[in-house]
């Protein structure tokens, strides 16, 4: 009997691409992921296609850019005609199981409008078999698990994420929930349970999701103070919020609109009121949460070895989007800065001859993951996929042609639980934002606002918007032209690869998409 070919897809939530100790980050304690990188390939310049979770995960799991799948915000339905990773591997007889969530809203043309899934931030994408669902509204599945283990939940169960001591907000204290009952432990435990219940010879794909290091920014003991304060870098930002806000009116709006309640359980007041000390404590909690995930990833990988499936399983570790973490005076994931879109990506191919310990500097994107996994499984990649298989990199090769830019989009209006309020002088119909980033520059286009342009060679920190500078008029025109050409080249293919002919319906040969 041929050996099964399995896939373990580990997806963290809100993990920045720079936050791995193997990349030299002083506050990222990630020995288990570093070891995985040593056994596989680390993609240093990997970017997601959007933020927040809904659009980001839609791109990752359909292999399509946001302009094609059109899930532009949390709560926006995913058109059922788009194939996804789960539906495609299911066709081949695999069991696509899920621990965690995909933040997917169903197609309202196929289900009644009274369907309770429309009252959630997102449900599970079609095709997955739910092994353990981490719902993102009241966390009832996870909270029930906590209560079943004898922990007395507070009146508001989510207060388990408040500091154990002192007021709500950034704190040096741990969260109230013990590490053994944390949501990260919930995900890791269910991932191990899945591996212990697989059937020999039956191939599987496990989407293993971790809620962290997503807010609330509070880590359980001992992770809360595991990272020494001296190792935590200061935020990358302009000297003042006013100087940062001067870059663009949307940035000025966000700097004044963010509220602490979105990031710290029970907190009040604006983010702009946080002191430098509070921002440092926020960053410390974030890296504590990362250290906790790394521990549980190690436990899951140890079980994969114990179960005898290590040499049959493609392992992928990544995230959906990043986190500003005080950089540019912002929290959360939004806008156009690299901190919100640059992601970790480690892939271990168990095949003989696969590369071990390679670091790839070329640009890769979240849309590449579905084609890579399908290609590794020997399955056809749907024509609608915008991504490209990364298998040549895994085998030690370097493709003759490859992209020299990455692309991401963001809806300025937001989504769940209700669209964000825009500044009074901006029409609510002005929503789309699209960015194109090369090694040399970043160009950000808006439907009704002036663009943003950075000369990354001179300003790698993205602190000076030169879009209005006459000296950059040529670069601005070049960047806008390139973005238009890219969008035209990657418009949804749909049925455009087919054409009627005297011999009947035939396949047209179109240029490769990179």
How would you portray this structure in words?
The protein is an alpha/beta fold. The chain has a single domain (6-403), classed as Alkaline Phosphatase, subunit A, CATH 3.40.720. The protein is 25% helix and 16% strand. The protein has 12 helices and 15 strands. The strands form 3 sheets. Strands 1, 2, 3, 4, 5, 6, 7, 8 and 9 form a 9-stranded mixed sheet that branches. Helix 6 (183-196) runs parallel beside helix 9.
How would you briefly describe this protein structure?
With 514 residues, the chain is α/β, with parallel strands linked by helices.
CATH superfamily: Alkaline Phosphatase, subunit A
Uncertain residue ranges: none
Number of strands: 15
**Helix share, percent:** 10-25%
Q: Tell the overall outline.
A: globular
Q: How far from one another are the termini?
A: 38 Å
User: Biggest sheet, open or closed, and with what strands and sense?
Assistant: 9 strands, mixed
Name the CATH architecture: 3-Layer(aba) Sandwich
The proportion of residues in beta strands is: 15-25%
Put simply, the count of helices is: 12
The CATH topology, please?
Alkaline Phosphatase, subunit A
Averaged pLDDT: 95
Helices and strands: which structural class?
alpha/beta
Number of structurally distinct domains: 1
Order of helices and strands: EHEHHHEEHHEHHHEEEEHHEEEEHEE
The CATH class turns out to be Alpha Beta
Radius of gyration: 22 Å
Organism: Limobrevibacterium gyesilva
Protein name: Alkaline phosphatase family protein
GO molecular function, one term: metal ion binding
Keywords: Hydrolase, Metal-binding
């Amino acid at each position: 009997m041929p050996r099964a070919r399995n896939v373990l897809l580990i997806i963290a939530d809100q993990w920045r691409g720079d936050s791995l100790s193997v990349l030299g980050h002083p506050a990222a304690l990630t020995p288990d992921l570093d070891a995985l990188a040593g056994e596989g390939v680390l993609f240093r310049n990997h970017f997601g296609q959007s933020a927040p979770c809904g659009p980001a995960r839609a791109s990752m799991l359909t292999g399509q850019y946001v302009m094609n799948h059109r899930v532009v915000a949390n709560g926006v339905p995913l058109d059922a005609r788009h194939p996804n990773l789960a539906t495609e591997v299911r066709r081949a007889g695999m069991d696509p199981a899920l621990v965690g969530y995909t933040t997917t809203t169903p197609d309202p043309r196929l289900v009644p409008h009274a369907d309770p899934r429309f009252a959630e931030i997102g449900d599970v994408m079609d095709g997955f078999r739910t092994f353990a669902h981490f719902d993102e509204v009241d966390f009832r599945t996870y909270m029930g698990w906590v209560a079943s283990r004898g922990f007395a939940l507070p009146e508001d169960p989510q207060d388990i994420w408040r500091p154990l001591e002192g007021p709500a907000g950034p704190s040096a204290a741990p969260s109230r929930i013990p590490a053994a009952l944390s949501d990260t432990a919930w995900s890791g435990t269910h991932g191990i349970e899945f591996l212990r219940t697989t059937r020999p010879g039956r191939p599987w794909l496990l989407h293993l999701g971790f809620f962290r290091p997503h807010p609330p920014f509070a880590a359980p003991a001992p992770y809360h103070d595991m990272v020494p304060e001296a190792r935590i870098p200061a935020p990358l930002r302009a000297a003042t919020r006013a100087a940062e806000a001067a870059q663009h009116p949307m940035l000025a709006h966000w700097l004044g609109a963010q509220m602490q309640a979105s990031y710290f359980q029970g907190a009040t007041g604006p983010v702009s009121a946080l002191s430098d000390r509070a921002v440092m404590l926020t960053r410390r909690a974030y890296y504590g949460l990362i250290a906790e995930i790394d521990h549980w990833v190690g436990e899951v990988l140890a079980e994969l070895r114990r179960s005898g499936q290590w040499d049959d399983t493609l392992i992928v570790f990544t995230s959906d989007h990043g986190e500003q973490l005080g950089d540019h005076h912002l929290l959360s994931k939004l806008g156009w800065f690299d901190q919100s879109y640059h992601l970790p990506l480690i892939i271990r191919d168990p095949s003989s001859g696969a590369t071990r310990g390679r670091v790839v500097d070329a640009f890769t994107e979240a849309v590449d993951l579905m084609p890579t996994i399908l290609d590794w499984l020997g399955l056809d990649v749907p024509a609608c996929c915008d991504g490209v298989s990364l298998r040549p990199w895994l085998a030690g090769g370097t493709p003759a042609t490859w992209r020299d830019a990455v692309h991401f989009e963001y809806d300025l209006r937001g989504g769940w639980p209700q669209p964000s309020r825009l500044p009074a002088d901006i029409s609510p119909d002005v929503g789309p934002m699209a960015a194109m980033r090369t090694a040399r520059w970043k160009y950000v286009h808006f439907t009704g606002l002036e663009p943003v342009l950075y000369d990354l060679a001179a300003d790698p920190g993205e602190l000076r918007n030169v879009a209005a500078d006459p000296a950059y008029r040529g670069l601005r025109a070049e960047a806008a032209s390139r973005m238009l050409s890219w969008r035209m080249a990657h418009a949804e293919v749909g049925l455009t690869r087919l054409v009627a002919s005297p011999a009947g319906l035939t396949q047209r040969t179109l240029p490769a998409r990179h």
